[in-house]
Amino acid sequence: MASRYHEVYESWKRDPEGFWAEAAREIDWFKPWDAVFDPNSGPYGRWFPGAECNTCHNAVDRHADGARAEQLALIHDSAYTSERRKFTYAELKAEVVALAAVLRDRGVEKGDRVIIYMPMVPEAVFAMLACARIGAIHSVVFGGFAAKELATRIDDAKPKLIVSASCGIEPGRVIDYKPLLDKAIEFARHKPEGCIILQRPQQTCELTPGRDTDYAESVAAARAAARKVPCVPVLATDPLYILYTSGTTGQPKGVVRDNGGHMVALKWSMENEFGVKPGEVFWAASDVGWVVGHSYIVYAPLLHGCTTILYEGKPVGTPDAGAFWRVISEHGVVALFTAPTAFRAIKGQDPKGEFVPNYDLSRFRTLFLAGERADPETVKWAEQKLSVPVIDHWWQTETGGPISQNPVGLGRLPVKYGSPGVPMPGYDVRILDDAGHPVTAGTLGNVVIKLPLPPGCLPTLWNADRRFHDAYLAEFPGFYKTADAGYIDGDGYLFIMARTDDIINVAGHRLSTGAMEEVLAEHPDVAECAVVGIADAMKGQVPCGFVVLNSGVARDAGAVEKEAVVLVRERIGPVAAFKTVVIIKRLPKTRSGKILRATMQKIADGEPWTMPATIDDPAILDEIGEALKTRGIGG
Ligand code: COA
Ligand code: AMP
Description:
Layout (H helix, E strand, L loop, with lengths): L4 H10 L1 H8 L13 E2 L7 E2 L4 E2 L1 H10 L7 E7 L5 E5 H17 L7 E5 L4 H13 L2 E4 L6 H11 L3 E5 L1 E4 L2 E4 H11 L6 E5 L13 E3 H10 L9 E2 L3 E7 L7 E6 L1 H13 L8 E4 L6 H13 L3 E6 L10 H9 L1 E6 L1 H10 L16 E4 L6 H11 L3 E3 L11 E2 L16 E2 L5 E4 L12 E6 L14 H9 L5 E10 L5 E6 L3 E4 L2 E4 H9 L4 E11 L3 E10 L7 H15 L8 E5 L12 H9 L13 H12 L5
Helix pairs in contact: 1-2, 3-4, 3-5, 3-10, 4-5, 4-8, 6-7, 9-10, 12-13, 17-18
This protein binds coenzyme A (COA) and adenosine monophosphate.
């Protein structure tokens, strides 16, 4: 069947507002919009101003009160505890309503912020939806971040309440959340009024009197009292959530997502981009702490009336490299969405794909990969072992959904390995040189998106319109800067090659090397430092810290290295995967003092590099090569 992609993309280009107004018919609105798009509000305009709606109503109630009441909405599958918990849409609604009543009782009102710091348990999803129900703004913080990172987010979002759990589970260890939560609240200048704590049997915790409420007890009381909490009408332009993502400094960016445009974009994507029908089982193997979890574990599948899977486990080791195939076959998954790193991990442990035939994958149709560049070798391995199309798609926390892909629902286009496909409706993607001039097909440059961004993208950063403007809009007037470098070929396919800023991608997780440098610089023996992302066969990239010690430091360098690793783990969290520190005598710099991070990265990766013309002292690069060699890194 011929793809409808070109026809649909052209129809969007001809009439963007008409296109999104048509897509918006799939959503229940309490009040229609005054305009589809208002170019004069917000830093670049706002979608569906004046409209009133509720995301929880569209994701839960309209299914629970209609034909899908008895259909499974959510399956929690924990590879750690072997537990399976299943919720129909009616049951999901009951859980969400009860928790919404508890939030209300704790004083949470429309517009208040609630931080959710939880492992991959259904209650994390209930908490997101309960906030949406009462018009509160949730901010989920990934469990792998340390107390200090949580504190930074508390200070920025100023939550009235935090919903958390006694523990999370990682392979071979239970992670005590309570001390992390307590420390974060102690570090933070803003103090939340209270916490709701889910006690998990693997490790319970002492509740703090006067501050903490027991999740299960309070929800049970709300259910026993048959509390009713209707979905509160909010403006389409009101924030649904804030999700912090790495910027170039230690201060993360609070990406704001609105209610109306977000629903329209996600609902459209499920059928047209992902080719999934209501009632089918969709699985995003990510974490609710990341944008993929927000969009494709929680909101998109539920808005579309699918069954979504919440998987607590890893692709390997829980218990083996067949874990993903087990989940697919057990729950009848039709589409899986994960990061290429998960497949590299599986391939590393089961290169011949020997686990695959042990499972019934007959209902499985498509594999979607995103979060980092999908290397052709991994894509081909997955295609061959699973005998399904493998779709690489490119997006960012900021966009909340794919910017480009091979649109399965509209009809697949020919595959080009190494390319995350073609721009989706809503995205006019261009490649500009550093001076802002368009480049010819096939030429590498800055990947930008012509404004306005489509519905579902961030309208701004939380309480930071100026930072939003400076970070994304200022450099290329009229365009959104993605901070990715890449090119578009003669057939209109995009190739995303690298970030143009200090962001690195570790196992599909976006991390700031600048933030790590800020932490290292706090070590009393460190004079100067630079962190770069170096190639890693499984995680894509891992951070490597180069450290210059203060003159006169007589301590054992190995001890300083160990302390530096611990410091980053304590401040940023284990998710940073910061394990390598190389002590060097001096950092390579340009004559104007800029650290030559890109050259250091090339040396560490054993790639060819040329001596930068502006380098202050060329001998430093040899010193770095030598220091890396002693650590077994580089060519
Ligand atoms: N709470 C506490 N700690 C966490 C955590 C959480 N929620 N999530 C991860 N961590 C810890 C891990 O235990 C690990 O700690 P360690 O250094 O002591 O081993 C560290 O953070 C790094 O975790 P992770 O990135 O998950 O690496 P891993 O080596 O444990 O597993 C993969 C590697 C590839 C299997 C895993 O990253 C993966 O499945 N990634 C693909 C899916 C994905 O998450 N994509 C995100 C965007 S789509
Ligand atoms: P995040 O905000 O965590 O989703 O990270 C976004 C960044 O990840 C992008 O700016 C890219 O650098 C990278 N990325 C995501 N998906 C892809 C992809 N399919 N191909 C290449 N890079 C990707």
